[in-house]
Design brief:
Elements (H helix, E strand, L loop, with lengths): L40 E8 L2 E8 L6 E5 L4 E5 L6 E3 L4 H4 L6 E4 L4 E3 L4 E5 L12 E11 L5 E11 L3 E4 L7 E6 L4 E14 L5 E8 L4 E3 L4 E8 L2
Antiparallel strand pairs: 1-2, 2-3, 3-4, 4-5, 6-16, 7-15, 8-14, 9-13, 9-16, 10-12, 10-14, 11-13
């Protein structure tokens, strides 16, 4: 290794330094790696025991920044012109970070009356729900019609908070209705996807119903509601 108190000497090409290297400077660009011929190149190579583990390559063609594995397979690339990824495997949870799941089910038997009846209600959303977030909401139900047939209507209702949401197509996607015969067993799912227009983490949704002709009966835990909020 060569050195100089005046800083006049630099290391020779091909030298190997052992030990840590510390660059203490106030310069805006403390380390510059310049490919003087302006061609594509492997600017940084990371090794363990002399065996290449990964490398950072800079190319003229987009995407310019390319991070490769030991086999020179590109694992992550980044476009300099748009800032977009060119290659990469990113977990869905990082693309759409889930704010918090909220779910609920009926603990006991629920009789669906002719008047609006609360069947089960999900928990409130936590702080963090924001405008533009995506909400997936679903309710699963199974009920038995009473001794007299008639229409049974089930729907999902916003029961808390001051938020506003844009649901797929219309509010009709949040309801189901069927004319049942006596003692008929009916099951189904209500599902929709929406977007938050006005955020309110106190929002809660409930599965509600009405039953004409005679009451419909939902056995314990035979109704569930679940919603998930994803960061758009």
């Amino acid at each position: 290794m060569r050195g100089s108190l005046s800083g006049a000497y630099v290391r020779k090409s091909g030298d190997t330094m052992t030990g840590a290297l510390t660059i203490a400077t106030t310069a805006a660009q403390p380390l510059i790696i310049n490919r003087s011929d302006a061609s594509d190149g492997r600017h940084l190579v990371f090794q363990r025991g002399g065996i290449t583990q990964a490398e950072i390559a800079i190319l003229n063609a987009e995407p310019k920044l390319r991070i490769r594995d030991s086999g020179a397979n590109e694992r992550l690339t980044l476009r300099a012109d748009t800032g977009l990824l060119g290659t990469g495997k990113i977990p869905l949870s990082l693309i759409f970070p889930m704010v918090q799941p909220a779910a609920g089910e009926n603990a006991g038997v629920v009789a669906i009356l002719a008047a609006e009846t609360a069947i089960c209600t999900g928990n409130g959303l936590p702080a963090g729900t924001a405008v533009g977030d995506i909400i997936l909401i679903a309710a699963r139900y199974k009920y038995t019609k009473g001794a007299t047939g008639g229409a049974t209507r089930l729907w999902i209702k916003d029961v808390a908070g001051a938020g506003s949401y844009d649901w797929l197509e219309s509010a009709l996607t949040l309801e189901a209705q069927k004319t049942d015969v006596a003692n008929e067993v009916v099951s189904g799912t209500i599902f929709s996807i929406g977007r938050v227009l006005v955020a309110d983490s106190a929002a809660q949704w409930s599965l509600r119903g009405t039953s004409a002709g005679s009451n419909s009966s939902v056995a314990a835990t035979d109704a569930q509601i679940m919603y998930r909020v994803f960061r758009a």
